[in-house]
Write a structure and sequence with these properties.
Blueprint: H1 13-22, E1 24-27, H2 29-34, H3 40-52, E2 57-58, H4 61-103, H5 105-108, H6 114-138, H7 147-155, H8 167-182, E3 202-205, E4 208-211, H9 215-230, E5 234-238, E6 247-251, E7 255-260, H10 262-272, E8 276-280, H11 282-292, H12 299-316, H13 323-341, E9 346-349, E10 357-360, E11 365-372, H14 379-396, E12 402-409, H15 412-424, E13 433-442, E14 449-457, E15 464-472
Parallel strand pairs: 1-2, 1-5, 5-8, 11-12, 12-13
Antiparallel strand pairs: 3-4, 6-7, 9-10, 10-11, 13-14, 14-15
Helix pairs in contact: 3-12, 4-6, 4-9, 11-12
Length: about 475
């Protein structure tokens, strides 16, 4: 059974030990690029481990090319973070000021002095902005000498694979890739339409044109060719690509990663005779390097690497934000949606601080309370218990005719979880209250944010009338 279906079997402990002892370590471009994003201690730890296995390192030409192509963009992204942090500080202070102003404490409370709090907040923010200015001066920019690249060059000298022999060879890969992608044959189909608006669909270098959407497939074929030429029997591929076209995942109380896709293990064995093939992201590579190589790696470095890997591409496409900034983007997006939906009605912020927005028309007053939830959406249950009663009270007192809770998550998988939690809840939803679950996906700042919303009502025990709509949100 195992011989016929090798791809579906994980190595046992003895096989893992042999794999780490005898394998060639192949690095993806994202592993090298992420070195620019790690704190110094984490970066040094990963480089130290790579130097420890330097005689067994190899990088496909495609991965090296993608590193060179994207290096300056990553450096620019690190520089841009300083402005984004300043923006978050400004948004946070504005949100605090507006929230306190809505409470009208000077008129309605004899003891609470918001000006004192705001003065202390400004003092802390000012000190932090000063630290940012100092750090920004030390941050390498795109035109500065790249000491990290010098280290990478030294580490990988003589360890880069050959380029494709001709454009005809690449064109054959593109045609085969088209067929493979249609059948969801890994790897690479997750990059279909990879180029962002305004981005080139091809990368030209060395007289060759590389189509971006087939980058992973080119890399994969280069791994297969290297395994055949070098007669490799054991390979570990280190990649921070988290997409399903590389990883075998199963949903079991959340997404569980089993290992590389079985199709990849089988194809590498069939075409190149590789006995054992396994994959790690940078975090897991460091963890197991401690076990199998005796490498000295600080746990804090592993934690820092994990944070960067988990952020994935969202981080370097401008999607990373603090919770409060995300909430503000979500609230602005809802306001813009309402303006587009009801251009003749008035949209106001509630003087009572609840809900966030009120749509006022000749017929009724509809409240919209926006709740941004990061990570597991189980917090929704607490929000329902704590806030639905307040909404019911506002309706019962005649200040609102109805209320919609807009529950916002930032991960596509969490949308289904949120809907499932709400639909299965035994908590009674009063008349006039309903929910909207939305996925907030900010694109480049100049284009604003894009929302994918699932709209549904709880007027009956079962969820009915689920509709999918796409909404262009306001610019940030």
């Amino acid at each position: 059974m195992r011989t016929s279906f090798l791809g579906y079997y994980r190595p046992d402990e003895e096989q893992f030990s042999e794999l780490w002892k005898n394998c060639v370590f192949i690095l993806d471009a994202n592993v090298l690029l992420n070195l620019y994003r790690y704190p110094k201690e984490a970066r040094d730890d990963l480089l130290r481990v790579l130097h420890q296995v330097s005689d067994r390192l190899w990088v496909p030409y495609q991965a090296a090319l993608e590193y060179q192509e994207n290096r300056l963009g990553v450096i620019a992204g690190q520089v841009r973070r300083f402005d984004e942090v300043r923006e978050v500080l400004a948004e946070t202070r504005k949100c605090l000021e507006e929230g306190l102003a809505r409470l009208q404490l000077k008129k309605r409370h004899s003891a609470i002095e918001p000006d004192q709090l705001l003065a202390k907040v400004e003092e802390v923010f000012s000190e932090f902005r000063g630290e940012l200015d100092t750090l920004e001066q030390e941050q390498p920019d795109v035109y500065d000498d790249d000491e990290l690249r010098d280290q990478i060059d030294s580490l990988l000298e003589g360890k880069i694979g050959p380029p494709p022999e001709s454009q005809s060879e690449l064109d054959r890969i593109f045609e085969e890739g088209r067929i493979r992608y249609e059948h969801k044959h890994p790897p690479g189909y997750g990059d279909t339409g990879k180029a962002q608006p305004g981005e080139r669909e091809t990368c030209s270098y060395g007289g060759l044109a590389f189509r971006r959407e087939y980058g992973d497939l080119i890399l994969w074929f280069q791994i297969i060719e290297a395994a055949k030429a070098k007669e490799l029997k054991h390979i570990i591929f280190v990649t921070d690509d988290e997409k399903e076209d590389w990883w075998w995942t199963v949903k079991s109380r959340g997404k569980k990663t089993i290992g590389p896709r079985p199709e990849l293990v089988e194809e590498l064995h069939r075409k190149a005779g590789v006995s054992s093939f396994y994959m790690y992201n940078s975090e897991r590579f460091l963890e197991f390097a401690k076990q199998y190589l005796g490498a000295q790696v600080d746990q804090e470095s592993i934690d820092q690497v994990r944070e960067i890997v988990q952020l994935g591409e969202a981080e370097w496409k401008g999607r990373r934000r603090t919770s409060i900034a995300y909430h503000m983007q979500a609230e602005r997006a809802v306001a813009q949606w309402l303006r587009d939906l009801c251009p003749n009605d008035e949209i106001v912020s509630s003087e009572r601080g609840f809900p966030d927005l009120v749509l006022v028309s000749d017929r009724d007053r509809i409240g919209y309370e926006v709740k941004y939830i990061r990570g597991e959406p189980t917090f929704i249950r607490h929000m329902m218990r704590e806030r639905v009663f307040r909404g019911y009270h506002e309706i019962n007192e005649g200040r609102l005719d109805s209320l919609k809770f807009v529950v916002v998550v930032d991960d596509e998988e969490e949308v289904e979880k949120a809907i499932d939690i709400l639909s299965r809840s035994r908590y009674e939803i009063p008349d006039g209250i309903s929910f909207v679950v939305g996925l907030l996906e900010p694109s480049e700042r100049e284009r604003g944010a894009i929302w994918h919303l699932s709209l549904f009502s709880f007027s009956k025990p079962n969820v009915e009338g689920v509709a999918q709509v796409n909404l262009a949100a306001s610019k940030c």
